Amino acid sequence: MATVAVEVVYRGVFQKSLAKEICRGIVFAARKEGRIGTAFGRYGDSPERNGIPAKQYAVVADGEEELEASLSQYEPAEVDVTIALDDTLCKGVESWAWYGLQPVNKLVKENGTLIVTSVQSPEDLVRSIHRNGVPYNLAILRGQPSFSGLWVYRDDHTDVRVLGALSKSCPQLFSLASVEETVKEQWRSDLKVASARRAYERLMTRLVEPGEGNPEEAYSYHLLPWQEMREGVVVPAVPKGNGFRGGDKGFEPARNPHFKKFATRSMRPVVNFDTCAKCSLCWLHCPDGCFDITPEGLYDANINACCGCGICEEVCPVKGAITMVNEALFTENGSQYELWKAQGKEGYQTWVGEKVTAQKGFGQWSHGYHHKGQYETELALASKEAQ
Amino acid sequence: MTTLQSLSQIRGVKNVPWDEYYTSGHRTCQGCESALALRLMAKAAGPRTIVLGSTGCMYVANTTYYTTPWVVPWMHTQLGSAGSAATGTAAGLKALMRKEKIKEEPINVIAVCGDGGGADMGLSAISAALTQTEYNLLIFLYDNESYANTDIQVSGTSPWGANTTFSPPGRVHRIMNRRWKKNVAGMLATGHPECRYVATTCTSYPLDLQNKVRKALTTGGPTFIHTLDPCPKGWDYDPRYSHELGELAVETGMWVLYEVQDSKLTLNGPSKALANGTKQRKPVEEYLMRQGRFAHFTPEDTSYVQRKIDDMWTKWWVPGVIPFQNEVVT
Lengths: 387, 330
What we know:
Chain A is α/β, with parallel strands linked by helices. Chain A is built from ten helices and eleven strands.
């Protein structure tokens, strides 16, 4: 080996500390094998925003010169392993200051590995990952994606489990023994050593052939070169909105056409139009202004504009009228209102019921801190269940 | 003085205008209440408005790569320049109208700044703007209690004890931000007797926020609004609770809603109920324990904050506004 590059793709802020712990661990474990390395975040992803995909890298080399050669690049052109810390990122990554969707496996080398923390089946994941021109391995680290915030870290062992998995998927990087030694030194916990080993033993891997995966072309935008920009860097304003779907009733705001929020979300609202009380609170409290007002005065969450925060579910006074559902359960981004119109009450209720029931399979929804002591209680409960 | 727009008070959520002037397509965090503050503000102000934005989250997250979520004209201005940009724009419009270069009509001028831009760096420029009584302008300070854009550094409005990148709690010193939150609106209201409208608000009370924006714009002269916006990134909480945390800030008495119009002070909404005793203040613990930035607090720290808030409500001349003791020594 000369250099080995690992990329960690994660949800900004929610998994920032987790990604940092992993990249740091990679460098320390590589040292055990007499190699040197460095860990760094992608410049363009800073400042990170909650939920918006971001990347950190760890590059490991045999010698200083090789490491420096790889560091002269802005980011690695290809990586041996990509680690996706949230499985909904398999639908694609649109980072903070980058326009267009990037397949999650874009940088993975031929016969490289994509490690995903997920409770989904390999088949479901392969369906949502864009096709790659080369064969690669998909490794699944079973478990809920780990989310916390900027200050309080959710220490659910995901960090060391990823390192254990990495030693299996990429043995040229380091051995399990080096990982165990590093975890013992850096984290000083035998429990975490055991977690790393268990992840190594239980990692499921499946080869993905070049033709497999989501056949869609990932969307991209034309970025204006400076010669085409207007004098004084004037940006044309967004036009005023119109009636719903261009009609004369209801309202649909015009939106910034260059920002689709598909990759920003890990959940999306499912609106039950049959129980909606038309109170307008979801629409009023949405920071992204994602709700379109239909001619009947219903509120249709425009999935192009929703970033998945969940405030609408919280402020909705009717129980079950809005439910946040995992993004993994959707393959398209169409209007739910139009689905409701097309399918009628019965069909639509079946659809809503299916989504809400399937959501329960993903367990308790947590995108960070709820109250003091929450992580400790949850982790104690989880380890009790594991035993 | 140019005439003012007539913007009526909004009675009930059903009467909130549908039109958006700050629309979707900004790259803010999930659950960003500062974005909601701008959305509501722009809705209330209407189409004939110019917005000036100081550097901060609401500049950087809104304007990356040659795109914008603004429907009304918006211009970036430097971090400490909200006050000067507002004065300059209002003066410029007035001159253009006097010289008949543009049609004579009332145009709202709103300068938006964050707590770093408004409560720290731009305070002097805002103070200067509030003395220029011949111009109609509104300074709108959105307060997420830190320099949130650059990954959460302490600002003059960060609460006591909060964890930030400049005040990480350590083993020896647990409380690293030992400064109490600046009383910005109170300071500006008492310090600028000719300023005809100063108010505080919070995004969890959208009608209060929108009506205050309309009052500021229809009162005329230089005006100021300070809004508290829960920030899921810096405060460290699940974004779904943004709305609830704003309510808790007000219900625990940590944040006070009021307005000063032509020297007449009114407490609004829940703050009014807390002051006249029809509602009891919730313990501050309910607010603090919901946020990761206070996760290191011991019971002593919580009771210190509670004591300070109790003092504010019982010993201040006007709770949340004027921190002098009740008695005047003559």
